[in-house]
Amino acid sequence: MNKNVKTTTVMLALTGLLFTACSSNEKKAEATTVVTPVEIKMAMPNAAAQNALSLGGQIEAVQSANISTRVMGYITSMKVKVGDHVAQGKLLATISNQDILAKRAQADAMIAEAEAALKNAQKDYDRFTALYQQQSASAKELDNVTLQYNAAKSRVDAAKQMRNEVNAMLAYTNLTAPFSGVVTQKMADAGSMANPGMPLLTIEKSGSFQVSIAVPESQINNVHMGNVVPLYIQAINKNIKGTITQISQSAQYTGGQYMVKVAIPENEKAGLYAGMYVTAQLPVKVAANVVNTSSDAVMVPVSAIFYKDELTGLYTVSANHTALLRWVRLGKQMGNDVEVLSGLSKDEPFILSANGKLADGVPVKEIK
Known about the structure:
The chain has 368 residues and is α+β, with helices and mostly antiparallel strands. It contains three helices and 24 strands. The chain has a six-stranded antiparallel barrel with strand order 3-12-15-14-13-16. Helix 2 packs antiparallel against helix 3.
């Protein structure tokens, strides 16, 4: 065999090895390709918003009270702190009352003096009455004694009423709980100066909550007593249903907004705190220019949303059956769903969940 034939044989052998290696790599690549099973859902238009008015509200106690005083003085003691549960009549704070106690002592002294004068006038009245009956005293003398007796009685009554006034003022130096509840705010401490009408504490009745919602005047006629209102509390990711119990008849001081109160059932109060933000879906017929919802907006589950820094997106399915990340703009959250304002059209499929990690270009197949 000559040299050229040997060279040709070696080249053919190398070519065969390279072809075999390439075929092997392609088979390995095909074998290592992983198809991620996913659950696909069609984007549906936000039909619920056409029959419901989405409004924000806040949870508040059914009964609350600001505790203040009618007297001026230093706070000598503060018996409670924020979060304390108090029973009706419990002493909350005391205010210096030495000046009022002095006035009550003066009133007691005036009562004693007036009662002594009354006893003396009583004796004169009884004596002159007997003398007049015996015709030993004139009618003029009896009239003078009677006038002195009535004046003495009036002075006793005046002194007693003065003491009642002092006692009423003294009661405002010992502040007590008007009902059983929880201390939610404390605006002053011992040593601070209390002024008449200045709130020192806030107490809210525990265990009873309601939601306060401002309804625009264009929709207040569609809101009725007893309507059931779906409520979503985002802070604790909880959906509950309340009932409309109050509808304000005036918007004079609320800028054209009518306050509506929605009662929360007692069995749903767990985990709730006054001040939590609530999204309410009032069952009304909403005009297109009232609700901040586009007719093309769709609702998707919050669990399908992908977050990256300040961006929000979700995965859709491409024509090649691969995952495709789509950035979207979100609107209001309603329960476990969120409104997609742009980036996803109605009747367009998106990936609801996946049995694996998703990324752009990852092959996917729908779970049947």
